[in-house]
Amino acid sequence: MDDRFADLRVIRHLLNESKTWAFVGLGDNPDRTAYQQANLLQKRGKRIIPVHPAAKSVLGEQGYAKLADVPVPVDVVGVYRRAEFAGDVVDEAIAAGAGAVWLPLDVIDEAAAQRALDAGLDVVMDRCPGVEWVLRREA
User: Transmembrane region positions (predicted)?
Assistant: First the structure.
């Protein structure tokens, strides 16, 4: 994977300027990475939207079964699914009009990331929002 999916300007922009993050794969299990990252970003002022087939409320926010059901504009879609499912989520993010997709550590799908770039979305891949927040937000 090359650095085009880890552009520091894009990372800073998403961490500093975004307001709404949809977390695909976010359930109510606090031991899961999606929950921990959503909780961290929520504590830092981001609105989080859980997207999971069970559509449960998580961290005090209404859950939705799929991205297409989310009734508000989404700045960033966090793709907290295994890499083999990431492409479908990226395609849903493009269709939903999201501004960006963020694929966390070890979730790598270069073809899907390129589709998102081609559709005009910002893309971050194989990076942890929490780690990047500490390292890059104010850098």
Answer: none
pLDDT at residue 137 tops 60: no
Counting runs of H as helices and runs of E as strands, what totals does the chain give? 5, 5
Q: Is the pLDDT of residue 134 over 60?
A: yes
pTM, entire model: 0.94
- Are 5 and 116 within 8 A, CB to CB? no
Q: Which of 39, 12, 20 is nearest to 28 (CA)?
A: 39
Phi (first) and psi of residue 17, to 5 degrees: -105, -25
Q: What is the pLDDT of residues 42-72, one digit of tens each?
A: 999 999 999 999 999 999 999 999 999 999 9
Rounded alpha-carbon distances, angstroms, from residue 105 to 37, 83, 128: 12, 10, 6
Strand partners, 122: 100
Could you please state the CATH topology (level 3) that the domain comprising 3-136 is classified under: Rossmann fold (3.40.50)
The beta-strand segments (E) located in 83-131 are: 100-103, 122-125
Please name the residues in contact with 122: beta carbons below 8 A apart, sequence gap of 6 or more: 10, 13, 14, 99, 100, 101
